[in-house]
């Protein structure tokens, strides 16, 4: 199997798997208990929180555990507007993850005006549009750090500069950037930031939201005293341990991972452009997560390419895993101005820690043959 869909999810790192198995076998105490077996688990949760905070340059108390990156996004947007009901405007981008887009749709039904910042052909937001869109009623600006389909990295520090001139909090969905590029909350200047464990070789069903100290936000779930009274309920202890271990590994080997992934991505991108005619690269040429490689194959349906690759046990995607079952053209590809037929021919390949040179060599052998064969079937002459 050759797995090139690491933006959708990553395999669990063996070190994380070992930690999860050890924890499940040896620790079952409720961290809210006052006796030793509960206090031991509480201390492990605090250690995991510290690992995440260390990677983000945050304080341990600023990390709130959630059920996913999607939940973190929901928490950030809904919590901010619930806490400041006099604010009636949300500003976000046209290429956000469905977790933000659908939460914005929900807020619109509750009377919040949502302004979508357009992007250019590379998926980069229009900062001038953002500056002109800000009003005294703006309650939050939410711009993703790196796009999940294109890999384009947004100028978050510039977004924050504009926001701070007006006292507006800024949230960023960093699910696709955390662990791949430096993400320091103080360097970026943001107030809220979402991450997810299963994008960084950890388990599914656990995420976190960074909330800067002093940020006015309402709880997501009411009940017990867990997570600073912001998300009640007994903690997903095994998930938290896995996320904390995955974050610890990031700190230890991010540079090593980046060098490896960037080299493989360069090889893949150059090989596709060399061996396959009539392809269009999508995404920013420089300001992007290098391991995300998105191409449109002129004259073909992406689904046909995907299924043909799957017969060779090569697994890629057509875009966001959270909208993969939709028949509509990707809203991201629409936003960067692709024609519908070009958008429908787009394939995303995302490289991860465990990919190898042999993986890329095999893809560069099989993919040109598949594209040529499909183009022959559709009677398109290239």
Structure overview:
It is built from twelve helices and twelve strands. The protein is α/β, with parallel strands linked by helices and 382 residues long. The chain has two domains: 131 residues, Aspartate Aminotransferase, domain 1 (Alpha-Beta Complex), CATH 3.90.1150; 237 residues, Type I PLP-dependent aspartate aminotransferase-like (Major domain) (Aspartate Aminotransferase, domain 2, 3-Layer(aba) Sandwich), CATH 3.40.640. The protein has a seven-stranded mixed beta sheet, with helices on both faces. The protein has a three-stranded antiparallel beta sheet with strand order 9-10-12. Strand 6, helix 7 and strand 7 form a beta-alpha-beta unit. The mean pLDDT is 95.
In short:
By secondary structure, the chain is of the alpha/beta class.
Label this structure with key terms.
single chain; alpha/beta; Aspartate Aminotransferase, domain 1; Aspartate Aminotransferase, domain 2; 12 helices; 42% helix
Task: Please render the helix and strand layout as text.
Elements: E1 2-3, H1 14-26, H2 36-56, E2 63-66, H3 69-83, E3 89-93, H4 98-109, E4 113-117, H5 127-133, E5 138-142, H6 156-164, E6 170-173, H7 185-188, E7 192-196, E8 207-211, H8 237-275, E9 279-282, E10 292-297, H9 302-311, E11 314-315, H10 331-335, H11 340-343, E12 346-350, H12 357-377
Parallel strand pairs: 1-11, 3-4, 3-5, 5-6, 6-7
Antiparallel strand pairs: 2-8, 7-8, 9-10, 10-12
Helix pairs in contact: 1-8, 2-8, 3-4, 8-12, 9-12
């Amino acid at each position: 199997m050759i797995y090139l869909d690491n933006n959708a999810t990553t395999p669990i790192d063996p070190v994380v798997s070992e930690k999860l198995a050890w924890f499940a076998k040896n620790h079952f105490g409720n961290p809210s208990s006052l006796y030793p077996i509960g206090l031991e688990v509480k201390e492990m949760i605090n250690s995991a929180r510290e690992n995440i905070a260390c990677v983000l340059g945050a304080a341990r108390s600023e990390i709130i555990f959630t059920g996913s990156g999607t939940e973190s996004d929901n928490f950030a947007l809904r919590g901010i507007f619930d806490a400041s009901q006099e604010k009636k405007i949300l500003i976000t981008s046209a290429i956000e993850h469905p977790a933000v887009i659908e939460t914005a749709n929900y807020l619109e039904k509750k009377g919040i005006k949502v302004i979508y910042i357009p992007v250019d052909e590379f998926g980069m937001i229009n900062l001038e549009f953002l500056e002109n869109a800000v009003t005294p009623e703006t309650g939050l600006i939410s711009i993703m750090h790196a796009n999940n389909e294109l890999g384009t990295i947004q100028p978050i520090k510039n977004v924050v500069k504009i926001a701070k001139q007006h006292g507006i909090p800024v949230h960023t969905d960093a699910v696709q950037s955390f662990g791949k590029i430096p993400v320091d909350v103080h360097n970026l200047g943001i107030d809220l930031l979402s991450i997810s464990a299963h994008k960084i070789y950890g388990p599914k069903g656990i995420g976190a939201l960074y909330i800067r100290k002093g940020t006015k936000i309402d709880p997501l779930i009411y009940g017990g005293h867990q997570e600073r009274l912001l998300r009640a309920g007994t903690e997903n202890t095994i998930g938290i341990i896995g996320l904390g271990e995955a974050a610890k590994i990031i700190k230890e080997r991010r540079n090593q991972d980046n060098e490896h992934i960037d080299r493989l991505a360069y090889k893949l991108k150059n090989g596709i452009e060399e061996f396959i005619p009539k392809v269009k690269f999508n995404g920013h040429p420089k300001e992007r997560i290098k391991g995300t490689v998105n191409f449109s194959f002129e004259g073909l349906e992406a689904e046909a390419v995907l299924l043909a690759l799957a017969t060779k046990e090569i697994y890629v995607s057509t875009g966001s895993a959270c909208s993969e079952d939709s028949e509509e053209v990707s809203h991201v590809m629409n936003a960067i101005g692709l024609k519908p037929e070009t958008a429908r021919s787009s394939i995303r390949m995302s490289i991860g820690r465990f990919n190898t040179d042999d993986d890329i060599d095999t893809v560069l052998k099989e993919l040109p043959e598949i594209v040529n064969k499909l183009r022959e079937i559709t009677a398109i002459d290239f």
